[in-house]
């Protein structure tokens, strides 16, 4: 009978029938049973042979004392030889064989000398012999069915890689993917042994390292699944052509590429209470040239294409890669001080959003929270009638090249924000230029449960991916920057067995630019805008620095967009300038911020040339703060007053004291960075 199996795409594959078994007609059933029984016959033949040897021996040596000594010595020697010969096998098998030999040879010796039917000798033969033969049969059955499946031992591949005696179960064969359950030798081998042997398996099969993976069974330390993907189906690059689900919800899967078997590479940012999934924060990690920029574009275009999300985005590289999408961002912060304000705003909106969600009966953000609140179940009114409040879109706060931002923020602050953001419908996305612990501390890394791990230095694999995923065969270090777009994705919602499967993002070429521009235009007309709670909390700390997404009509489309990287913190460090860490984010060449209406007059300095009186100096200082606020620069430190000090003949230490005083007066608020103060917008200042 032809057995066929079809996959999801309708392709058919022949299934092989076990040897010796065919259509099941009468004649062949006997042949089949004989075939199945054959391996179990040798112990019984051994039993019969032992009986024959005892009978013939008695006939030959029945009366000889010397033969008795010889037979006893031969029996001991044979048992010893069995023990010695069994040293390469398992202890259990060695002992079993030695006991069998000892029992058999002792019986033959006794039968030869006293006669096979003397005293209990025949009873011993009739009872002990079958028991010993059966014990070998049982052993064989156990070996062939470790899982009660049709498993069979593999004497070839596994032996070659040092896993002899491990059992491979029935393999599932799919196009370009073989999945085989493995059961290891109880008490002797663990899943770690398979993990360590993966490279050797790849070598034995002449495949790349990433083609062989192992998924340990979470319930057993000696069972798991070996997955072999022989052909690299990712080698062909695929270009991005547009978002997967324009107008869908951010709660639906975000498609960022494909896996090596062609299935969609997806992830989720918000949680889903129905399946017990928490919202997540993500890291995009990869070395330069690994395709990190395009991976970020894959994710960002997916996020922006959803109807119920807003994005706050900080990019020290002046939106070099992201310029076409900028009009679709609710807040775009370029560089150090703008990012400081954005971070302060994220900190501020979290409790406000959590309160709002709680008041409307949401334990975490769900798509319904983004709609107008017409459901009495989700009402903030004490009488439980529908409140009709405006909905709250999900918020993605994205930090490109975030090493400096995170360092300035400090571990505790970041960990705290990440922890609380989960219940506020806020996801943090962080990208790192060099994925390593000198860029980000262990605790900050631990606050980002999801990762898109692109090619990296082999030494940084442990930073990019959890140990279990590396053990299962994931090796982004093997790609470096030679396989742009190749990545592993670890994120809640993805089947854990997939974590060690490589995927590849889509490539963004110049052809993608007009599509991204169209997407940004779509966001401007159809995308979510920030809700009053988020706007209120953000504006209370960021003042005019937070405008919310402006529409084309008000000029966002014509907002000047830098197409070249500006010199930023990283560049300054790498450029070898010796910069005081406190001043690292100050560009000594930079002009002071322009005023709102764009005129070129200096922001301060009308009264240059003479030292002001103390009262006048304080007034000028207050005016300077107001001008900073007007210009949207909400985080300041003494360095920002350098030119101002020069103009007014005042020292930076004088400014430092005034800054502290202003903080006591409620006009400034301390930030996580020593010597940097956040301006409290005038309307909300104490
Ligand atoms: N999925 C992909 N398929 C094919 N090529 C890709 C893919 N992703 C990125 N590339 C290409 O790989 C090259 C390196 O990408 P890119 O410069 O974006 O890397 P990067 O990690 O962002 O580097 P850097 O951090 O230096 O900006 C580019 O030529 C890019 O077009």
Automatic annotation (TrEMBL):
Segments of this protein annotated with the region Disordered: 576-615
Organism: Streptomyces griseorubiginosus
UniProt cross-references to NCBIfam families, sorted A to Z: plasmid_TraB
Biased composition (Acidic residues): 580-600
Binding site for ATP: 286-293
Top-level taxonomic group: Bacteria
Assigned keywords, A-Z: ATP-binding, Nucleotide-binding
FtsK domain segment(s): 262-463
Name under which the protein is recorded: Sporulation protein SsgA
Entry-linked PROSITE patterns: FTSK
GO MF, one example: ATP binding
This protein's record includes keyword Nucleotide-binding: yes
PANTHER family membership: DNA TRANSLOCASE FTSK, SPORULATION PROTEIN RELATED
């Amino acid at each position: 009978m032809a057995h066929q199996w079809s996959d999801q795409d309708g392709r058919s594959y022949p299934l092989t029938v076990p040897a010796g078994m065919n259509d099941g007609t009468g004649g062949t059933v006997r042949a089949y049973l004989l075939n199945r029984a054959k391996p179990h016959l040798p112990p019984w033949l051994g039993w019969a042979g032992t009986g024959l040897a005892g009978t013939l021996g008695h006939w030959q040596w029945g009366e000889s004392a010397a033969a008795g000594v010889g037979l006893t010595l031969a029996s001991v020697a044979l048992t010893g030889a069995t023990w010695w010969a069994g040293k390469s096998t398992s202890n259990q098998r060695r002992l079993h064989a030695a006991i069998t030999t000892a029992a058999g040879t002792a019986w033959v010796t006794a039968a030869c000398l006293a006669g096979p039917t003397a005293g209990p000798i025949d009873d011993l033969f009739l009872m002990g012999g079958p028991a010993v033969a059966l014990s070998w049969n049982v052993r064989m059955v156990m070996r062939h069915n470790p899982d009660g499946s049709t498993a069979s031992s593999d004497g070839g591949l596994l032996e070659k890689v040092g896993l002899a005696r491990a059992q491979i179960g029935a393999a599932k064969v799919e196009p370009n993917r073989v999945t085989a359950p493995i059961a290891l030798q109880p008490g002797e081998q663990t899943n770690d042994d398979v993990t360590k042997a993966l490279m050797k398996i790849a070598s034995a099969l002449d495949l790349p390292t990433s083609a062989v993976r192992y998924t340990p069974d979470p319930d057993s330390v000696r069972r798991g699944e070996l997955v072999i993907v022989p052909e690299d189906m990712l080698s062909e690059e695929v270009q991005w052509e547009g978002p997967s689900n324009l107008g869908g919800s951010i709660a639906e899967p975000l498609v960022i590429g494909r896996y090596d078997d062609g299935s969609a590479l997806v992830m989720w940012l918000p949680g889903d209470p129905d399946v017990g999934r928490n919202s997540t924060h993500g890291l995009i990690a990869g070395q330069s040239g690994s395709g990190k920029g395009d991976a970020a574009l894959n994710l960002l275009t997916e996020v922006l294409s959803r109807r119920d999300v807003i994005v706050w985005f900080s990019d020290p590289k002046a939106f070099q890669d992201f310029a076409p999408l900028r009009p679709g961002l609710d807040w775009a912060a370029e560089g150090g001080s703008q990012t400081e304000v954005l971070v302060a705003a994220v900190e501020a909106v979290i409790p406000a959003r959590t309160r709002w969600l709680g008041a409307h009966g949401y334990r975490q953000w769900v798509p319904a929270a983004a709609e107008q609140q017409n459901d009495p179940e989700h009402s903030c009114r004490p009488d439980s009638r529908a409140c009709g409040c405006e909905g709250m879109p999900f918020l993605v706060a994205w930090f490109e090249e975030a090493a400096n931002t995170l360092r300035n923020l400090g571990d505790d602050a970041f960990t705290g924000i990440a922890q609380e953001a989960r219940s506020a419908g806020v996801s943090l996305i962080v990208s790192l230029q060099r994925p390593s612990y000198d860029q980000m501390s262990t605790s900050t890394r631990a606050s980002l449960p999801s990762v898109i791990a692109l090619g990296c230095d082999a030494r940084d694999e442990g930073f990019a991916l959890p140990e279990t995923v590396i053990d299962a065969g994931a090796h982004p270090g093997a790609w470096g920057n030679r396989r742009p777009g190749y990545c592993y994705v670890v994120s809640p919602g993805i089947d854990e067995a997939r974590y060690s499967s490589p995927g590849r993002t889509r490539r963004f070429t110049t052809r993608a630019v007009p599509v991204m521009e169209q997407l940004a235009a779509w966001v401007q007309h159809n995308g979510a805008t920030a809700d009053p709670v988020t706007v209120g909390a953000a504006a209370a700390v960021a003042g005019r620095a937070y405008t919310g997404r402006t529409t084309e009509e008000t000029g966002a489309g014509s907002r000047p967009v830098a197409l070249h990287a500006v010199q930023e913190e990283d560049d300054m460090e790498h450029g070898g300038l010796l910069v005081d860490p406190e001043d690292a984010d100050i560009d000594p060449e930079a002009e002071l911020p322009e005023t709102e209406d764009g005129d070129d007059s200096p922001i301060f300095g009308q009264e240059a040339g003479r030292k002001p009186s103390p009262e006048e100096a304080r007034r000028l200082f207050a005016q300077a703060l107001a001008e900073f606020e007007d210009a949207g620069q909400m985080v300041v430190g003494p360095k920002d007053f350098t030119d101002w000090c020069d103009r007014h003949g005042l020292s930076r230490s004088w400014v430092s004291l005034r800054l502290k005083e202003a903080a006591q007066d409620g006009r400034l608020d301390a930030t996580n960075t020593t010597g940097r103060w956040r301006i409290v917008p005038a309307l909300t200042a104490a």
